[in-house]
Amino acid sequence: MAKKKIELFEDVKKHHVRMALETNKIATTARSAGIHPDTLRKWIKEYEIEILDQIEAEGKSIMPTVTTEKEYRKKYELAMKLLGEKELEVAVLKDALKKNDHL
User: Fold this and answer.
1) 87 and 42: one domain?
2) Chain segment 69-93, per-residue pLDDT in tens
3) Are 44 and 70 within one domain?
């Protein structure tokens, strides 16, 4: 009986490890499981190789965690565009305030 409980608990741990590895979101997975992220990290260390082997055997792949230079450039360009829009907005508002003060 106790052995069956241990196996069930191990299955639950492996399920959460797999979710964390597939989504690359440890904190979110831990929160949804109701456990501390450090606990999940410990489980990942324990079961990572086994779970990755299962995923590979199923022909699936894990989302890459490394951001490419191209992705960084896109994010940078978007940030610069948004910054430029905000600077323009501030300039327009300052101009409107000056015109209001002269009236």
Assistant:
1) no
2) 888 899 999 999 999 999 999 999 9
3) no
Token pair belonging to 69? 């230079």
pTM greater than the 0.90 cutoff: no
Q: Which domain holds residue 7?
A: 1-64
Cβ neighbors of 13 (< 8 A, separation 6 or more) are: 43, 46, 47
Cα–Cα distance for residue pair 90/70, rounded to 1 Å: 30
Nearest to 39 by CA among 76, 13, 65: 13
Is residue 26 a contact partner of residue 37, using CB atoms and an 8 Å limit? yes
d(CA 67, CA 31): 25
CA distance 89 to 33: 44
